[in-house]
Every structure is written in structure tokens, then in C-alpha cells.
Amino acid sequence: MPAFPGDAVDDISAALGALPSGTPVSEVARRLLDLFTGGSIAAGTRLPPERQLATTLGVGRSAVREALAALEILGIVDVRPGSGTYLRGAASELLPQTLRWGLLIGERNTAQLLELREGLEIFVARLAAARADAAIIARLEKSVAKMRVSIDDLTAFARADLDFHHALAEAAGNETLTDHVHVVRSLLQVYADRAVHDPAHAEQAVAEHSAVLDAVRAGDPDAAASAMAIHMATATTRLLDA
User: For residue 76, what are the domain limits?
Assistant: First the structure.
């Protein structure tokens, strides 16, 4: 992967510009999104470190870290511990506009977002079962295996869970649908705790993901949709309880 060129630091600073003191994470995310989806940075590029981005924007590193975490869930960037943050690729024109609207929603619409996510994820699973190739199935199997061995490490578990859903979305092959799923998932990540809070929930989630995997492996769209519906129902209950 190409590293971000050192002689372009000034260009990044000019493109980003400093933000006012106390700027919320949502605004940091929007400013970064504008840069990452503007076409000036090639897909696969390793981005400047958090410290440099924070200095350029005039905000704390924690704000940059949280903003990048939200953009990772959206599928814009790929955060690799010990390696850096990489730009995944260009999003559709819909994504930045949807995110601008969505980051202003607030907690009052969490239940509606959860309902929307259920429908989107179920349809993604249905399409994935009909379209997934051997490479996608291998990625899904790897993600479930990582989840299974990370029962006691919920941070690693959550990352494997996210990888599973990213692979499903890629298999679905519908970029507009995928953009919507990423936006809703990002908003729920910003405004709600993770759905898995303890090993018991993690074990249940592993079983639910395994059922989706089995259906995708069998090429059965109806079974995949049903399995995802079960997973979304329990995940939604946990999020609302939180």
C-alpha cells in the first residue's frame, strides 16, 4: 500500500484547515469525509497518523480517533493496529450527503434506525447468499472463527463481527445498498453501545453468524434472510436495552 507522500502534508493542511475549539466528533468526521471522498487521495493510501491529523485540525487525538472509527464502520477507511489507517476507496455520491444528514439525527431516532438496519441487513444477506463466491465465503468463515476465539476479548470480537458484515455487503454487489447499511451502522455505533456486552451475548452472536454463514455457503437466500432476521432481532433487543 502506498504511504501518504510526505511532501503533500501542506496540501492536506490546506484542504482540512483548523476547526474551532470544542468541535464535536461529528464535525471532525464530516471534515475528514470531505477529504477522503474528494478524489485527491488514491484508494489504498496509508493516511497521516492520528497525531498529525489532530494537529492539522486543531482538535484532540481522541476526537480524530473516534471520527476515524465511525468512518471505518462506514467502510471509508481501514484501521489496522500497528500499521496505520488506509483509505478503502471512493464511496458513492450518496454517502457523504447521507452522512451529513445522519450525524445530526440524535438518540431519539435510534429505534427507527434499528428497524431500518434490520431490513437492509436482511436484504444484504439474501443477495449475498445468491452471489457470494468462494473467496467471500472464506472471509466469512475466517470472521466467524475469529469471533469464536475472541469471546473474552470483546474489542477483537466486535472487529471480527464488523468484518463479517463488510464481507456480506461486498458479496451483495449493490453499492447503494451497502452505502445505506454502512451509514445506519455508523450512526448506531456513534449513538449506542455495542450490541455485545458480555461473553454470553458473544456466544449467542457467534451462533447467529454461523447460521447466516451456513445459509450463504449453501447458496440459500431464504435461509440466509431468515438467519439474519433472527440475528437482527436479538441485536436490536440488546441495543434498545442498552
Answer: 6-87
